Amino acid sequence: MAQPKTVWDDHPEPLTVASAPVPEYGSGSLADLLPTLAAGLGVPDMSATITELTPADRNCVFLIDGLGWEQLRAHPDEAPFMASLLATSRGGTGRPLTAGYPATTATSLASVGTGLPPGAHGLPGYTVRNPDTGQLMNQLRWQPWTPPGPWQPYPTVFQLAHAAGVHAAQVSSPTFENTPLTKVALSGGTFLGRLSGEDRVDLAAEQLAAGDRSLIYTYFAEVDGAGHRFGVDSDAWRGQLMYADRLVQRLAEQLPPRSALYVTADHGMIDVPFDEQHRIDFDEDWELSAGVALLGGEGRARHVYAVPGAANDVLTCWREVLGEQFWVASRDEAIAAGWFGPHIDERVYGRIGDVVAAARDDVLLIASEREPKESAMVGNHGSMTPAEQLVPLLEVRS
Asked: Fewest CB within 10 A of the end CB: N or C in the chain?
């Protein structure tokens, strides 16, 4: 899905599962990035599936949380350096990558770090049901605490690269050093915590130079935070984008020889108006809540877990109520359509909702009582629309 494959107004009503624009797993998704770079570094069992990229001895991935392809293209004045690199995206094709479904931070970071799609790494949503306990598991905050290893048992690309003699390091906020999400998604080699963005990019450049073969990751979260709180066209969001642009340029100007810098993101974002037409409240809708035991996911990418025996009725109701604005699928339909990747591990199957609902229009399915903070956010993401799904892969080489 380098360019949107679907003209939204041409959809039959209700939306069909097959009409959803599925991510480019296996050729142009976030899960393909690190394996492609690692293959170029000679790491065993890695495949260069993003065929447009040229290998480099030293590779740095700078992930800017929340900076979608469409938002970057719409703000060249705030991000002049990154805008000047748009034509370099995806190996000089000028095309984006796809995040993967759902387009949300925990899922995307796990896809980046493991090199696997959500159906394999097993973090297929913001909150999902733990089949062993029956409770909702928040995979970003890791609440309630769940043993990380069994939840995501695959090695990260950083671990495999380190074992192959590649210098691997992550440079991020010290807050993230010992989190379960970091452990299952981004561990391997050396974690280096730095508070300021300038310190992080300076250290990332030093780490690139520290090995003849290097794989370095660094991260900036504040663009996403400003978007959630104030919206993706607010002054606060624009200010964080300007700062991120300066950080990218600062890092690019320090690249050691034989290096490639890749600037990407975990998802894009859209603003959703605060009215009943655009924000449907699950907690106040008896039709949508009938037969539902747990409501997972987030406002634009819902996992719906039915009480025993009610899954078909819930699916029928959700299609009737939401089917003109959401792609609504049963678990098996979403899996067969490839929403979570080409293969679903057995341990992951029960984490996916009996019903899966992905927003096409600028709408949210909020839950004002059980999710008050999430329901109050201005900027949102999660679904498969271009604004959420497409992310840059800007490139600078030395």
From this structure: C
